[in-house]
Amino acid sequence: MTVPRVRRSAIAGSWYPGNPRRLREEIEGYFSRIPEGPLGGDPVGMVVPHAGYAYSGQVAAYAYRQVMGRAFDAVILIGPSHRQPFRGVSVYAGGGFETPLGVVPIDEGLAEGILANGRDVSDTPDLHAQEHSLEIQLPFLQVAFGAFSLVPLMMGDQGTETCRALAGAILRAVGNRRVLIVGSSDLSHYHPYERALVLDRRALDHLERMDSEGLLQSLEAGLCEACGGGPAAVTMMAARGLGADRATLLKYANSGDVTGDRSGVVGYASLLYERTGHERTGRAG
């Protein structure tokens, strides 16, 4: 009998509480401070920050509150690699991801479909061992959904061609499944507060227009910053392909709003991409 591989938590007790009760209570507290109900569309994608909960947890909660209690066949979670440079995209294609709230199983059929359809997508679980950009989202998803299945995708290369290829692979693999695509990204890093607002506004302009190509071009030109710009772009490309026709900025803040130190801040935003009645288009761009 084969024992399923489980990716153990690398950041519980530091980036977020390691005690299950405290972790759940903290996330429920974030949700309780968001009085607005769902926007009324059919969510297919979101972009959320990936800093420690003390810094960006409340911002992330704005997006997760919008999908709380909804049913999806799987969540496709896309994040950048902070620790190991590598070519292409790494999928953790089997087993599960563990947090203090339990083990989230991998949707192995969907993961294999992305592998089969994706250029430069590899099943390389070792690359995921210490990365925080994916794990940091899981407790929010566990509280919002209860049980769900996951496909974790980590981008080593965030270039335009890799983004287009990954979005196309996701759309071909998804078929008729009802999925939520989550792009994990912070915005500008360590600029004075007012400068960060300017840089982040440029990124948000693209994110609010579902302008994936414009975002990638602005990032390349240094007009804005996003450490998960590739995951955000793929989320927008795939969301459009799944019929998303509305983008909503739910919350923006930066670390200076939390700590009071405005000398060098990190930007955070939550955005939601929804269908509002149009059919799926199958397009990746």
Name the quaternary structure: single chain
- The count of β-strands is 12
Low-pLDDT parts are 279-285
What is the CATH architecture assignment?
3-Layer(aba) Sandwich
CATH class: Alpha Beta
Fraction in beta strands: 15-25%
Q: Level of helix content?
A: 25-40%
Look at the helices and sheets and give the structural class. Answer: alpha/beta
Task: Please provide a written account of the structure.
- With 285 residues, this protein is of the alpha/beta class.
- The protein has a single domain, classed as LigB-like (Protocatechuate 4,5-dioxygenase, Chain B), CATH 3.40.830.
- The protein is 38% helix and 23% strand.
- It has ten helices and twelve strands.
- Strands 2, 3, 4, 7, 8, 9, 10, 11 and 12 form a nine-stranded mixed β-sheet that branches. A three-stranded mixed β-sheet has the order 1-5-6.
- Strand 5 and strand 6 form a beta hairpin.
- The longest helix is centred in the C-terminal third of the chain and has 16 residues.
- It is globular, with a radius of gyration of 17 Å.
- The C terminus is likely disordered.
